[in-house]
Specification:
Strand content: 35-45%
Bound molecules: adenosine-2'-monophosphate
Low-confidence stretches: none
Number of helices: 4
Shape: globular
CATH class of one domain: Alpha Beta
Order of helices and strands: EHEEHEEEHEHEEE
Radius of gyration: 16 Å
Number of strands: 10
Helix content: 25-40%
Structural class: alpha+beta
Largest sheet: 4 strands, antiparallel
Length: 177
């Protein structure tokens, strides 16, 4: 199974994000059902490991908190823009939750994640260069700020790579009190 831990987003917020999805030819905009905020990418694991991961995530205790998506940004690789995303307002509770998940997964035997946590919601992936249009996209949406939403749980997703893109399935939800 290919797994990752993420925050599922409320539908009104996804609708709001889908409203940003215009103006760049060749961008593969994420369908609404795929919009999420990754807390920890796990990758391919055997079933027995997935069960240990589930146990470790179940043991996490934490409180819910409000979170606000704001601003947009991009990821680049070799000077080429590969993804557009919506950003997240600074949130110590989010960082704290992410750290708890990272600790739990390490205790469950996963290798530490070496990359710094950069909270974002991927809006589009880009296979071809489209750099001029992207400047416009960033300028247009710089002041984007969504209504805060309540984070009340986090979710273990599985990901299946299909012809039409990835299909994400919520395997288990873990409540925050
Ligand atoms: P992205 O949206 O920034 O690309 C499911 O694939 C989720 O896990 C996506 O949100 C993706 O982040 C993230 N992801 C996919 N492959 C990854 C990798 N090799 N390392 C870190 N995160 C990854």
């Amino acid at each position: 199974m290919r797994l990752f831990v993420a925050l599922d987003l409320p539908w009104p917020l996804r609708d709001r994000l889908a409203g940003l999805a215009t103006g760049i030819m060749g961008a593969r905009w994420m369908p609404r059902e795929n919009l999420h905020l990754t807390l920890r990418f796990i990758g391919e694991v055997p079933n027995w490991r997935a069960e240990e991961i589930d146990l470790a995530l179940h043991a996490i205790r934490g409180r819910g908190f409000p979170l606000t998506l704001a601003g947009v940004g991009l990821f680049e690789k070799g000077g080429r823009v590969t993804a557009l995303w919506a950003g997240v307002e600074r949130s110590p509770p989010l960082d704290h939750l992410q750290a708890k998940i990272e600790n739990a997964l390490q205790r469950a035997g996963l290798e530490p994640e070496r990359r710094r946590f950069t909270p974002h919601v991927t809006l589009a992936r880009l296979d071809q260069p489209a750099n001029e249009k992207i400047t416009g996209f960033v300028q247009r949406n710089n002041l984007f700020r969504a209504e805060p939403f309540a984070v009340e749980r986090f979710t273990l997703f599985s990901s299946q790579l299909g012809k039409e893109g990835s299909v994400y399935t919520a395997e288990t939800e873990y409540s925050l009190t």
